[in-house]
Design brief:
This protein is of the alpha+beta class. It is built from 4 helices and 3 strands; from the N terminus they run ββααβαα.
Length: 117
């Protein structure tokens, strides 16, 4: 049974947590995945990482918890909600877990969906 990691991304100087995620890869591999994504996407976390890297900084990635791969989605949802309850302004795109729970489509994407259907 594979084990996965729940992790946080934080500002490397202030240590303020801005993102909670899950991975079955190493933290180093996941961090470089985020950095690569930041060059191709415009989600909030990508913009934040792009700003950091333009200042010569990289996010701090730290393990928060670990679990079997089957429980990762549930744990990610739990920790995202917990950090939000604590007042953290997370840059997560969704509420966590599998799929796009909590994703809010833009008006443009809603119109495109209506047009196609």
């Amino acid at each position: 049974m594979k084990t996965g990691i729940i992790y946080t991304l934080s500002h490397p100087i202030t240590k303020k947590v801005v993102y909670v995620g899950k991975t079955i890869n190493t933290l180093e591999t996941r961090l470089y995945g985020h950095i690569g994504d930041s060059k191709r996407h415009s989600r909030k976390i990508c913009k934040w990482i792009s700003k950091l890297t333009s200042e010569g900084l990289i996010p701090l990635i730290e393990e928060l918890d670990s679990s079997s791969e089957e429980d990762l989605a549930r744990l990610e949802i739990f920790y995202i909600e917990l950090f939000k309850t604590w007042g953290f302004d997370l840059k997560n795109h969704t509420d966590g877990g599998e799929g796009l729970i909590g994703f809010n489509h833009s008006e443009k994407s809603k119109l495109l969906f209506q047009y196609k259907n």
